[in-house]
Design brief:
- By secondary structure, the chain is mainly alpha-helical.
- It has 2 domains: 96 residues, no CATH class; 60 residues, no CATH class.
- It is built from 1 helix and 5 strands, in the order H-E-E-E-E-E.
- The strands form 2 sheets. A 3-stranded antiparallel beta sheet has the order 3-4-5, with no helix packed on it. The protein has a two-stranded antiparallel sheet with strand order 1-2.
- The radius of gyration is 51 Å and the shape is rod-shaped.
- The protein starts with a helix and ends in an 11-residue tail after the last strand.
- About 12% of the residues have low confidence.
Length: 185
């Protein structure tokens, strides 16, 4: 019996050693799992903090984008207002030109020296396009040898008189030689 008892004791001890090893392995695995879980929690917290920092930069970018959109909207509104102002100014200019043309036509009807019924009649108003020019004052010699200023050489709104003087839109009057005429003289 003694060898059987010894075999049983050895088997029990062997089983206990195997159980102890298994328990030790399970405990080590759990301990490592807890350590890994703690490391994972720490890494997750670090990632959250980095995300919060990144959120601030996203908020700043969002604010910059909103400010740029606001500037663009202000520019659009200013452009619309400028366009409306330009349309209104053009409307007023056309109305003023029409009034001036009506006055000139009335004057031409009254003036016996103007054939306002001719087929080629067109009133000559200070705002007529035939008075516009971007060229400097040009002069051409006349039979008297004196230079003659041509109508196309004067700014829009200028009036050339038979005596050679020119009345400019600002009200100044000049002779053909460019000297100023005193209106009170």
């Amino acid at each position: 019996m003694s060898s059987t008892v010894l075999a049983v004791v050895l088997a029990v001890v062997g089983v206990l050693v195997v159980v102890a090893i298994v328990v030790a392995v399970v405990m080590i695995t759990r301990s490592r799992g807890r350590a890994r879980a703690e490391a994972d929690r720490s890494r997750a917290e670090q990632l959250r903090q980095e995300a919060v920092a990144d959120t601030r930069s996203v908020d700043e970018a969002r604010l910059e984008a909103r400010e740029a959109e606001n500037r663009a909207e202000r520019s659009r509104l200013e452009a619309e207002k400028a366009e409306a102002d330009a349309v209104e100014a053009e409307r007023k200019k056309a109305a003023e030109e029409a009034l001036i043309e009506d006055r000139v036509r009335e004057a031409d009807r009254i003036d016996p020296g103007v054939d306002h019924r001719a087929d080629d009649y067109a009133p000559t108003t200070p705002a007529s396009d035939d008075r516009r020019t971007d060229t400097p004052l040009t002069e051409s010699p006349t039979a008297t040898g004196q230079p003659e200023q041509t109508a196309s050489a004067h700014p829009e709104g200028s009036t050339i008189h038979e005596d050679g003087t020119v009345t400019y839109p600002d009200g100044s009057v000049r002779r053909s030689d460019g000297t100023t005429v005193d209106p009170g003289a």
